[in-house]
Design brief:
By secondary structure, the protein is of the alpha/beta class. It has a single domain (4-147), classed as Alpha/beta knot (3-Layer(aba) Sandwich), CATH 3.40.1280. Helices cover 41% and strands 22% of the residues. Helix 3 (82-94) links the parallel strand 3 and strand 4. The relative contact order is 0.23.
């Protein structure tokens, strides 16, 4: 069974971050099937934050995976070191595909968090959501290398 990992994210990557993410996506190609699905990001201008969060949440839930484990990225989630993430990722993959969900600039709606199987924090620092996608790709690559007992020097 092939390792399948998806990223479900609010918004598209900016031009500056696309090549960095593409770099890690290429590195992941031999070790997993990586998919990215993006839902529309709503501008805050002229809208209440609650309405933006609600609308982005609805779009994420409409794109929700039908199988596997869903891990929401949130600053208040469980923090793991690299070996810990590798172990968790292996456990999640044993249950099927893994989808990581990244919210927009306001984070994730409560309904999205409630539906996720796990909540993970990449850092107690608040990362911009586009940068979080790049950090996630690197950390998934690192975790898969650790799980395969391969050296990681990148």
């Amino acid at each position: 069974m092939a390792t399948h990992i998806d990223i479900l994210a609010v918004g598209a990557l900016s031009g500056d971050l696309k090549p960095v993410f593409a770099h890690y996506a290429r590195l992941l190609t031999p070790v997993c099937d990586l998919g990215v699905r993006e839902v529309r990001e709503y501008a805050l201008q002229g809208r209440a934050a609650e309405a933006v969060l609600r609308d982005e949440g609805r779009r994420l839930l409409a794109a929700w995976p039908r199988r596997g484990v869903v891990v929401a990225l949130v600053v208040t989630g469980v923090e793991r070191d690299s070996p810990g993430l590798a172990a968790s990722l292996q456990g999640w993959l044993a249950r099927g595909a893994v989808t990581f969900v990244i919210g927009g600039s306001l984070g994730l709606a409560p309904e999205v968090l409630a539906r996720a199987d796990e909540q993970l924090s990449l850092s107690r620092l608040t990362l911009p959501h586009q940068l979080a996608r790049v950090v996630l790709a690197e950390q998934v690559f690192r975790a898969l290398k650790i799980a395969r007992r391969e050296p990681y020097h990148h």
